[in-house]
Amino acid sequence: MDTNTEPQVAVGVEGVTNNIMGDQEVLVVTQKHQHYPLPIIPALYSKLLLLVVLPVGGFLMPVFHNEETGTSSFSGLQYLHVCVWAVVMLLTWYIKGEHKNSRILGYHDFYNSTRHLHRTTFYIMSGGNVILMVLACLVRDYCMGGSVSRCSVNISLSPVNYQQITFLLEVVIAIPFVIKHIVFVVRFNAAAAPPDTLADDLAFRISGPESYVGVRGPSSLEWVLERQADLLQVLRHRNSLLTQQVFSLTQQLEQS
């Protein structure tokens, strides 16, 4: 005897066929408590590797750079940063899309807890681009020497040194966020929890603990409205899937 207690949604159709034993066949669409892991661990490790490559390349390129190539060490480091920033942007776009899919599948709590982590590295490196652009203008206007010559008599730092400092600051600020993001995703995948919309305490999650007190502030009201909007988006997504499945089953019945 089957003791499975998973929630099921019966889909009614006009034509119902009988099998050999004479029992009616009922088309049922099941809603399983299934976990949907996030496949972004390789992308996060790639982002972490790029953050390590950036300062390493920033210190090695001036050492092994050949001026006969037609570009200075300063320009080479600018190109290096832009290339790393472009790859990080693509990884961020992919990770953001996977988080959005996870939200549509019903993982609202996890999405809200990581909604800023997957974009932080991109924002930090974009800020680094702005700093390097301003630095390039200052070097052109006030530094008459080469890229490895110091610009000031009082400060023994060359334009390349300022670039290296910028790279280090970016990496020191961004790496903790990437590591935190990796830890969150690993724990999320290991927990193998079902979507929030299938949780037993769904009503409590929507209303929040303040509903039991009877007083709700403006910030709590905004939180409730946001959660309701998330749930509506999930219901629309699942309704679309159920509609497609009903249409497919109806076609199979018409052909049989």
UniProtKB/TrEMBL annotation:
Give the subcellular location: Membrane
One Pfam family from the record? TMEM192
Q: Name one GO cellular component term.
A: late endosome
The answer to whether the entry has keyword Transmembrane is yes
- Membrane topology summary: Multi-pass membrane protein
Q: Which InterPro entries match?
A: TMEM192
Transmembrane feature ranges: 44-64, 76-95, 122-142, 162-179
Task: Write the record's keywords in alphabetical order, separated by commas.
Answer: Membrane, Transmembrane, Transmembrane helix
Task: Tell whether Zinc-finger is among the UniProt keywords.
Answer: no
Similarity-based family: Belongs to the TMEM192 family.
Q: What protein am I looking at? A: Transmembrane protein 192
Look up and give the organism this protein is from. Scylla paramamosain (Mud crab)
